[in-house]
Design brief:
The complex is a heterodimer of chains A (about 120) and B (about 110). Chain A has about 120 residues and is mostly beta strands. Chain A has no helices and 11 strands. In chain A, the strands form 2 sheets. In chain A, strands 2, 4, 5, 6, 9, 10 and 11 form a 7-stranded mixed β-sheet that branches. In chain A, a hairpin with a 5-residue loop joins strand 4 and strand 5. The relative contact order of chain B is 0.34. The chains are: A mainly beta (about 120), B mainly beta (about 110). Chains A and B meet through strand 5 and strand 10 of A and strand 8 and strand 9 of B.
């Protein structure tokens, strides 16, 4: 079955960087688009970024554009989120999420999430 | 403010049916053609319960159903049970982004 395991979360001061990883298994990783979605505990879901199956196209939410970069390594079946210039408002649980098709579509599987806390 | 608006909370008694609405607003409203719904319990990841507006993934109870009219998608839970208590999100996507509603807390009285 589909497994998505995030790692790399933690506590960092404002302005620092962090890289999240998501190890995928149980499906043909190179055939599906992937998302990062975040959630402040107890609040709503916020889409962060999408990357197409071949890695050639990425889209980022305005709130993270220019600071975060989504990437993937299909040979390692791993999704990444490079986060720079972190802000207090980036504090959230970050979910890795599989899309139902190579490019666009609904999320059909979620990881368990990794907590990122930005605080001085 | 989310591009998809949901009521903050909906409640019902066991056995009743409840409906959660999800209304698209703003300049991109017409682009949101396909809606999905997710159920989430505290401390857990969301789970897909409806996709493409009205389709259920394998293993999801047929008490969950979805529909769409105009710019509004709806999730109906029939025969409400205590185990349905949780948070429900709608979602849609365009060529360039994915959006989520603010979430609806379902309470079983």
């Amino acid at each position: 079955q589909v497994q998505l395991v995030e790692s790399g979360g933690g506590m960092v001061p404002p302005g620092r960087s962090l890289r999240l990883s998501c190890a995928a298994s149980g499906f043909d990783f190179s055939s599906y688009g992937m998302n990062w979605v975040r959630q402040v505990p107890g609040k709503g879901l916020e889409w962060v970024a999408t990357i197409w199956n071949d890695g050639n196209v990425q889209h980022h939410a305005d709130s993270v554009k220019g600071r975060f970069t989504i990437a993937r390594d299909n040979s390692k079946t791993t999704l990444y989120l490079e986060m720079n210039s972190l802000r207090v408002e980036d504090t959230a649980v970050y979910f890795c999420a599989k899309i139902s098709s190579p490019r666009l579509g609904y999320v059909d599987n979620w990881g368990q999430g990794t907590l990122v806390t930005v605080s001085s | 403010q989310s591009a998809l608006t949901q009521p903050a909370s909906v409640s019902g008694s066991p056995g009743q049916s409840i409906t959660i609405s999800c209304t698209a607003a703003g300049s991109d409203a017409g682009y949101y053609q396909y809606f999905s719904w997710y159920q989430q319990f505290p401390g857990k990841a969301p789970k897909l319960i409806i996709y493409d507006g009205s389709r259920r993934p394998s293993g999801v109870s047929n008490r969950f159903s979805g529909s769409k009219s105009g710019y509004t998608a709806s999730l109906t839970i029939s025969g409400l049970q205590a185990e349905d208590e949780g948070l429900y999100f709608c979602s849609s996507y365009t060529t360039f982004s994915t959006v989520f509603g603010g979430g609806t807390t379902v309470t079983v009285l």
